[in-house]
Amino acid sequence: MRIPNSRSLRGLTAAVAIAVVAVGCSSDRDKADGEEGKGGDTFVFASPGDPASLDPALASDGETFRVTRQSFEALLKHESGGSELTGALAETWSGDKTGKVWTFNLRKGVKFHDGEAFNAAAVCANYDHWFNWKGTYQSSAVSYYWQTVLGGFAKNEDEEAPKPNYKSCVAKDENTAVITVGETSANLPGGFSLQALAIHSPKAIKEYEKQEATAKGDAITYPEYSQKAGTVAGTGPYKITKWNKGNKEVSLERFDGYWGEKAKIKKLVFRTIDTEDGRRQALQAGDINGYDLVAPADVKTLEGAGFQVPTRDVFNLLYLGMTQSKNKALAKPAVRQAIAHAVDRENIVRTQLPDGGKVATQFMPDTVAGHSPNVKKYAHDTAKAKTLLASAGESGLKVDFCYPTEVTRPYMPAPQDIFESLKADLEKAGIKVTPKPMKWNPDYTDATEAGSCSLYMLGWTGDFNDGYNFIGTWFAQFDTQWGFKDRAVFDAVTAGSKVADPAGRTAAYRKANEKIMEYLPGVPLTSSPPAIAFGKNVNPPKVSPLTQENFSETSFK
Questions:
Q1: How far apart are CA 487 and CA 448, in angstroms?
Q2: Cα(555)–Cα(557) distance, rounded to whole angstroms?
């Protein structure tokens, strides 16, 4: 999933201004039911950030998807607790040998939250709705995932917009939908599992189309329907009933008409608590029943007190980015190699990450097909870093180094501490570092997207298990945040995306990883298994390496 809020496909930056909606504020919050061992009908989960929208098609951030995943379902999903694709609203699916025609055999007897019937016509209504977006909806800050997976629109209004790859959706019969694309894509079938392509009620879509997203300069205002409960309607085990922005809470209730196993707890509340200490203290006090992104230092403390702290499998990557267009010295291969040798990634794993953290050798974790054992490696060697800098005529190299504040991410549990470790390593090699701390959203995300930082830290948690979802995100084409143009790298990365055969695609990804690490646009640092915490009397859901927990599995002991 992307970093909040959006990184542009073409280097576009957007400061997203959320439409202000009048909402009622209660004077106090519900205590988290069940923490005194009594059970209860409300489960309260603390998230590190607010959602951006109740319509997942307009979003690209994990906090939005954490909420909407409980209420909306796509054609496919990932197995509970894993990364293998399985059926969701489609019971079965198949692609032809070209990877261009996808047939979905749909579940029968499924209802949307507004009472409308789910069928093949509903599937096509969604895909045609997205394909025909106009105006601000075509901004990659709004429709990132549509553009990433299926390209542009019926009528592209921006000459730099990607070529549309979506051709058609046909309701072959009531329970069979056929989606056709123009070219084979590595983003399929995985893209059919994305929350951004979850299926909405056709009746709700008609209401959506009465409202517009608007833009003033780079500021985007989302449509009103996406900022309050009442209009959006999916098929999931919970339905969204309220977004209390004053209390920073989204409330959901069990949908008793759900086609599958009913949610075990009646009410679900997502509450934003943006600090690690605040989330931990709320769990310890019984104000919440669970929270995400547990600080590594808190894991043993919580477990010792009887709380449950399962750790997800590794499916993310943290990297040290370099913007060559911002600092011309970074265009020299010897300088980039020197930086790679200067940083001590083992130390970050040892001191900053939870148990199970790994040193990264390339721009995807070793749990993804396409990870290569033959990439060029850059061992920690301060003396070699100094020699390389001298050979490049950059012994007195000066760099600005941006790092984020007021945030924790699954791949980056302690940003300032990791920054300090990297800064110390670079200075030992003779590089003079100017720190540039920035608030995560929107300052940091905007600055990195715009290529305004010589060095910076960012990362990625995979959306689905395909190597292109990692390396294609960064290196399929020119990207302002990297600021380099190397056709050999771009071609190596895109080669695999056009191969329909899985084995052939994996082999192409290995070669692409080897080419990337030979060029070395940045330094892959680590992969981290993020921890999630639950109360003592909670039966938690299966934790997902993709951070795609299904809270309908949750119950009280």
A1: 22
A2: 7
In angstroms, rounded to a whole number, what is the distance separating the alpha carbons of residues 137 and 86? Answer: 30
Which amino acid is located at 535 in the chain?
G
Question: CB-hemisphere CA count at 13 Å for 44?
Answer: 22
Q: How far apart are CA 137 and CA 243, in angstroms?
A: 23
Q: Which of 77, 107, 96, 65 is nearest to 191 (CA)?
A: 77
**Residues in the chain, overall count:** 557
Distance, CA of 517 to CA of 337 (rounded, Å): 10
pLDDT tens figures, 58-81: 998 899 999 999 999 999 999 999
Burial of 92 (0-12, 13-18, 19+ CB in 10 A): exposed
Question: 262 to each of 42, 256, 290, 451, 535, how far by Cα in Å?
Answer: 15, 7, 21, 47, 22
Residue ranges in 191-313 assigned as alpha helix (H): 202-208, 276-285, 299-304
From CA 35, how far away is CA 42, in angstroms rounded?
11
Cβ(447)–Cβ(453) below 8 Å: yes
- 92-132: pLDDT as tens digits: 999 999 999 999 999 999 999 999 999 999 999 999 999 99
For residue 420, the surrounding DSSP H or E stretch is: helix 415-428
CA dihedral sign, ordered 473, 475, 479, 483: positive
**Pairing outcome for strands 398-405 and 432-439:** parallel
CA-based end-to-end distance of the chain: 32
Distance CA 259, CA 257 (A): 6
Buried b (16+ CB within 10 A) or exposed e, 314-345: bbbbbbbbbbbebbebbebebbbbbbbbbbbb
Residues 6+ apart with CB under 8 A from 331: 324, 484
Cβ-contact 293, 48 below 8 angstroms: yes
Cα separation of 430 and 446, whole Å?
Answer: 29
With 0.70 as the threshold, say if the pTM is over it. yes
d(C-alpha 314, C-alpha 7), whole Å: 23
Distance CA(267)–CA(241), nearest Å, equals 10
Lookup: tokens for 14? 């957007």
HSE-CB at 384 with a 13 A cutoff on CA atoms is 14
The count of other CB atoms within 10 Å of the CB of residue 98 is 10
Q: In what order do the strands lie in the sheet with 398-405?
A: 358-359, 523-527, 316-322, 455-461, 398-405, 432-439
Which residues is 473 bridged to in the sheet?
Answer: none
What one-character DSSP code corresponds to residue 441?
A: I
- Give dist(CA 202, CA 463) in Å, integer: 26
β-strand partners of 106: 90
pLDDT for the residue numbered 441: 77
